[in-house]
Design goal:
By secondary structure, the protein is mainly α. It has one domain. Helix content is 75%, strand content 0%. It is built from 3 helices and no strands. The radius of gyration is 15 Å and the shape is globular.
Amino acid sequence: MPDPKTEAEVAALIDKLGACLQDQHHNVALSTLLSLYRTVAVQHPCCTQSAANTAMTAAMQIAMAARGTAPSGAPIH
């Protein structure tokens, strides 16, 4: 668990990024965030494996949340 200072920094950055992306289409916002995540992860080899593990966990959580939310064959953009 991150220390309180790190948690506060993360929360502040989430607010800033959210403000930057609030007027973007959600597909653009998601692509932007994933591209940024990937870029930072590979630029810092000390964190690359941890970032990959975190991304896999997030992917599984998203997949579980998506189950049953869109009818089979629903259009995807």
